[in-house]
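The instructor's notes for this session suggest beginning with a concrete chain rather than abstract definitions. Hand out the sequence below and ask the class to guess, before any prediction is shown, which regions might be ordered.
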Amino acid sequence: MRLAHLGPPGTFGEEAALVYDRSADLLAMASHAAVARAVEDGRADEGVMAIENLLNGSVAETLDILIHETPLRIQHELLLPVVHNLVIAPATKAEDVQVVYSHPAAFPQCRGYLEKHFPAAQQEAALSTAQAVELMMASPVPAGAISTVRAAELHGATVLAQGIQDSDLNVTRFVIVGQGEQPPTGRDKTSIAFRFADDRPGLVARVMNEFASRGINCSKFESRPTRETFGEYIFLIDFDGHATDPDCRLALEAIRPMCAMLNIFGSYPRWQK
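After discussion, reveal the predicted structure:
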C-alpha cells in the first residue's frame, strides 16, 4: 500500500496515515491537492486528507478539492486526537520569541495560549506544522512554532509547552480517498454535494425532507461558494447509511431531479476505534 499524506514527515497527516495503515509506504506531499493528484496518477494507492476539526470546523481546501478538482471517492474516515505544542530552537529564550510559525489551521486552535504567552508575536503561516519547525529553526529572529512532538524531534527543536490547544478534546477528522466505491458494511456514512439550477424558496427544505421522511439521519449540513456567481452555493450533507441502501437510494433518486449537480463523494464505514 502506497499512502499519500500532507508532509513533510512530522505532520498530523503523517500521524493519521500511520493510524490508518502503519505498514504502508508513506508519500509526503506538499498540499492536499498534491495528495489527490498522487492518487489520481497512480503514484499512491490512497491519500489522507484532513476534512474537519473540532475547533475550526470544516477544512475548506479539502471540500473544494472534492467538489471541483478530483473524481476520487472517500473510502474511509478516521478521527485523530490533535495535541499542539509550542517548540523553539535550543538556544532561544521564550521571552525573546518574535514570530510563531504554523499551519493556518493551528493558530485558531491555540488562540488562548498565544494571546496569553505571546501576544506580541507575529503569526506566520507554513504549509504544515512540520514545515513550521523548519522555518522556525531557520528564522533570522527568535521564533517559535506550533507543531507535533515528532516534528520537533526530527529537527532538533525543544518542546517549550505541550498541549497548548484551547480544548483537550481537540480532534481532526481525516478522510482516505481512492479509486472506486466501498461495499456496504451496515455502519456506513455517505457524503454528497449538490446545487440547484435556480434559487427558489423551499428547495433545501424539500431535499432535507426526502431524508427525514425515510428516517435517515443527516449528521452534517453546510455550504461552499460555487466559484461562479456570488451568492450561489453548493450544499454538502453527510448522512447515515450507504448510497445503495434502499431508503438512501430512494432519497438520492428523489433529490436528483431537483439538482443541477449531485456528486456522491462516497459511502464508507463510520470511524470506530
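Then share the key points. The chain has three domains: 2-81+170-178, 85-162, 188-269. The domain at 188-269 is CATH 3.30.70.260 (Alpha-Beta Plaits).
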